[in-house]
Amino acid sequence: MEDIYWILQADKVYRFLQNNKRLDGRKFDEYRKAVIVRDFSKNADGSAYVKLGKTEVIAGVKLDLGQPYPDTPDEGGLSTGAELLPTASPEWEAGPPDPQSIELARVVDRCIRESKGIDMKSLCIREGELCYVIYLDFYVTNYDGNLFDACSLAGTAALMNTKVPKVENDKIVKGEYIGKLKFTKKPLLTTFVKLKNYILLDPSLEEDKILDARLHVATTEDGKICAFQKGGSGSFTPKEIESCVELALKKSKELRSLL
Amino acid sequence: MRVDGRKNDELRKIKFEVGVLSRADGSCYVEWGQNKIIAAVYGPRELLPKHLANPYRATVRYTYRMATFSVPDRKSPKPGRREIEISKVSAEALEKAIFLEKYPNTAIDVSVQIFDSNASTRVAALSAAACALADAGIAMRDLVSAVSVGRANGEYVLDLRKEEEDAPDAVDLAMAILPNTEEVVLFQMDGIITKEECSRLLKLGLKGCKMVYELQKKALKEKYMREV
């Protein structure tokens, strides 16, 4: 049963949009306030807490040992997961990852991986045999829209302060580090949603719940695009995609300045 | 020159065949280069469990699965995260094409299975699924036509093969449109590009999708020729 609450909210959101306004008073291309708290978890090898509007996520990194993939025998690995915690929304329950959390984790993973910002070769210990694997996990503790940008900001912030643990006799030495993870490019996602014919940056909860389509543009510090993802059952015209790309390159700088 | 001798804006050999299964409400088999994919549609039918049904419109459920032997290394039969993500975005892409509001409370189930693969399977599967939906007689505003475009070894190419996806500078963009309005309903990319390259790939993708659209239409018409 579609929640009647969101149907009523949709009426309100569209009434505002007709007057070129958003419910929270923002411009169509305006980010909410973002805050980063680094080193959130002492036990993690890298971590960050991010608040974007009232959306709150915690990203944590642990490095473990593993075997390199056969097609990249001289590189380390990256594995990304996301949990939509029951604390974050009444609709979410504990349990195995559902398509929503899998998409979230995979899109953020793609943004970071495809930027080529992580020096994967530096994570190889013995070619074809032993390497570091970066486990990057997101916990969404409060859902107020736009999980994608919040997670990518938290993930990049966490990787930027990740330390690489020491390895002795093919085992990780707890609490001892050999240096910082080599991570550049500051990749970030910029999310747009389409509601009827309105395109909005950084969707709030209401906008997220009633969107027709969304577009995530991953950009890097040097002004390149490194990934796209379109979601939702609506569509974008090629022109709209081009203008979102333009805006993403501009607006991502605002979030990046916090890193 | 590309690995298989194609021009940069040339598709592999593609053959759709519509109405190939006897039990499904609609079906389509596609051979797309080395890719061999079958798509079946059931519905609109009752959505169970009932509390998941949407009283305003139909729900599209799409399952994209690869056979264990369809890739160089055996794939685990368990659905992977990649398959789940592709299924989700493909369902959303098809929803735009269907008059969902005509079928409240129902499910439209689309099942696609990959038996042999060589890159661009998600777009081949989606294009076949659109034909199967049309074959099932489901009311649609348009077909969905999909291709991959990208960059490989400095060239901008249509319909990437595995070797091209693995090029050192590879960019892989999967896109699908409603061919009559050019609305983009699927858009996924890996790889680093500039704003200008993005526009260029979009243009090549639109052209490719329209080429696929012609093949889809031809296959749908052929089915009815066969039946007469």
TrEMBL record, chain A:
Biological-process GO terms, alphabetical: rRNA catabolic process
Entry keywords, A to Z: Cytoplasm, Exosome
PANTHER family given in the database record: EXOSOME COMPLEX COMPONENT RRP42 (PTHR11097:SF8), EXOSOME COMPLEX EXONUCLEASE RIBOSOMAL RNA PROCESSING PROTEIN (PTHR11097)
Function: Non-catalytic component of the exosome, which is a complex involved in RNA degradation. Contributes to the structuring of the Rrp41 active site.
Gene Ontology MF, one: mRNA 3'-UTR AU-rich region binding
Annotated family: Belongs to the RNase PH family. Rrp42 subfamily.
Alphabetized CDD domains for the sequence: RNase_PH_archRRP42
Residue ranges of coiled coil: none
Alphabetical list of SUPFAM superfamilies matching this protein: Ribonuclease PH domain 2-like, Ribosomal protein S5 domain 2-like
Family annotation (NCBIfam families): PRK04282.1-1
Intracellular or extracellular location(s): Cytoplasm
Protein name per UniProt: Exosome complex component Rrp42
CC per GO annotation: cytoplasmic exosome (RNase complex)
Location of the Exoribonuclease phosphorolytic domain: 30-165, 188-250
Major location category of this protein: cytoplasm
Source species, domain of life: Archaea
Subunit structure: Component of the archaeal exosome complex. Forms a hexameric ring-like arrangement composed of 3 Rrp41-Rrp42 heterodimers. The hexameric ring associates with a trimer of Rrp4 and/or Csl4 subunits.
InterPro entries hit by this protein: ExoRNase_PH_dom1, ExoRNase_PH_dom2, ExoRNase_PH_dom2_sf, Exosome_comp_Rrp42_subfam, PNPase/RNase_PH_dom_sf, Ribosomal_Su5_D2-typ_SF, Rrp42_archaea
From TrEMBL, chain B:
InterPro entries, per database record: ExoRNase_PH_dom1 (IPR001247), ExoRNase_PH_dom2 (IPR015847), ExoRNase_PH_dom2_sf (IPR036345), PNPase/RNase_PH_dom_sf (IPR027408), Ribosomal_Su5_D2-typ_SF (IPR020568), RNase_PH (IPR050080)
Cellular component, GO annotation: cytoplasmic exosome (RNase complex)
Family indicated by similarity: Belongs to the RNase PH family.
Keyword Hydrolase carried by entry: yes
GO molecular function terms noted in the UniProt entry: exonuclease activity; RNA binding
A GO biological process held by the record: gene expression
Protein name: Exosome complex exonuclease Rrp41
One Pfam family matching this protein: RNase_PH
Positions of transmembrane segments: none
Domain of life: Archaea
Localization in the cell: Cytoplasm
Keywords: Cytoplasm, Exonuclease, Exosome, Hydrolase, Nuclease
Annotated Gene3D superfamilies: GHMP Kinase, N-terminal domain
Chief site of localization: cytoplasm
Keyword Nuclease: yes
SUPFAM superfamilies named in the record: Ribonuclease PH domain 2-like (SSF55666), Ribosomal protein S5 domain 2-like (SSF54211)
Subunit structure: Component of the archaeal exosome complex. Forms a hexameric ring-like arrangement composed of 3 Rrp41-Rrp42 heterodimers. The hexameric ring associates with a trimer of Rrp4 and/or Csl4 subunits.
Domain Exoribonuclease phosphorolytic: from-to ranges: 10-138, 142-208
